Amino acid sequence: MKKVIVTGANGSGKSHFAARLATVRADLPAISYDAMRLENGWIKRPQTEIEADLSDLLEADAWIIEGGPSLLSYALATAEGVVWLDPPEILRAWRLAIRPWRNIGRTRPELPEGNVDWPLEQYRFALRSLKSRTRFREIIKSRLSAQENVYVWHCRRQRDVEAAIGDLVRSTS
Fold first, then answer.
1. The whole model's pTM is what?
2. How confident is the model over 71-79, as a mean pLDDT?
3. Which of 11, 85, 117, 163 is least surrounded, with the fewest CB atoms within 10 Å of its CB?
């Protein structure tokens, strides 16, 4: 398996999972959809540029791309596998609560330089994300159920995450 999407709501662990998978599958470069979408200062790039870059990426022979539910409408048709990270809401809330403090005044590794985490802005974003949890799950569920020929790992717990990593490591042979 050489084309893998890692998706889920904010705080589900997408960036961490993609980076971890890329370390055990060196043949798969990890790309952040947010990095494709953003310029400096949390400004969104023009949609035509995003789609052109994403189209180029999806034509490559191998990739891991991590992003939220909006990524699926672009990338699902070319993917071989999807890892849907769907942890309990309390875990997502905790991750979203500590994220800005881990990265205060710095840009997270998965984002383009100049997109600095500051607690107040990140907490506003986190609250909107947590309120949208049902919508995120329904979008992902409906997009995945409509797609055939794609293997899906629905990871609710850490043991599911470990199983997905193991399966993806074994898929090289």
1. 0.90
2. 93
3. 163
